[in-house]
Amino acid sequence: MAQIEFTGINHLALVSSDMARTVDFYSGVLGMPLTKTIELPNGMGQHVFFDCGGGASLAVFWFPDSPEPAPGVSAPAHRPDRGSITSAHGSMNHVALGVPADRIEGYVDALRSAGVECSEVVNHDNSEWGVSRENTDDVYVRSIYFTDPDGISLELAAWTKPLGPDDVSHAPVDATGTPVTSRVRHQR
Fold first, then answer.
1. HEC string for 126-141
2. Residues paired with 132 in a beta bridge
3. How far apart are CA 98 and CA 155, in angstroms?
């Protein structure tokens, strides 16, 4: 197979239970410009796109006959600071939106001022538990976790340093948990 040239994420598509509420949240609260709206044929619903920066979009569908959500199956039942983040195979666990590292601290207050319940800033590092109370030299990404009005898990994430070959040090495991040597492409 020919090498595919990737330019980044084009879009990620979510499903909403109330498009007006979703547009208000993503555009009004988070400030993502609404860039495209589509009325699906035959009363199938709506589809919209928001600009989430860097040439990427966040897309949302609304279907009048969508089944109810199943937290703990189709999505995590909790935020990472509140409980298990496990979700089913094939589910979307969360959406991480990139933000500038020097602004992440202020986003906690901004989200809470807008009525959005969120975590404190989480410092992800290479320690045994994967998090640090302080922003140390070992922290590689800082995050804030919250949900949208439909309970979709969202994260604001800020890389704090470039990742290198030493950051890929674990063999992927198969369905039984056994490490497997695979055709992993490393960054150049």
1. CCCCCEECCCCCCCCE
2. 123
3. 8
**Could you give the residue ranges of the DSSP H alpha helices within 53-138?**
104-113
Instruction: Please state, as a whole number, how many other Cβ atoms lie within 10 Å of the Cβ of residue 3.
Output: 6
In order of 30, 60, 78, 142, the CA distances from 35 in angstroms are: 14, 12, 30, 28
Report how far residue 80's alpha carbon sits from residue 64's, in angstroms, rounded to the nearest whole number.
Answer: 31
Q: How many CB atoms lie within 10 A of CB 133?
A: 8
> Above 80 in pLDDT, residue 184?
no
The 10s digit of each residue's pLDDT in 17-27 is 999 999 999 99
User: What are the tokens at 54?
Assistant: 């860097």
Residue 188 reports pLDDT greater than 60: no
Return all residues near 139 (Cβ < 8 A) that are at least 6 apart. Answer: 123, 124, 125, 132, 160
- What residues contact residue 106 under an 8 Å CB cut-off, 6+ apart? none
- 183 band by pLDDT with thresholds 50, 70 and 90: low
Q: How confident is the model at residue 185 (pLDDT cuts 50, 70, 90)?
A: low
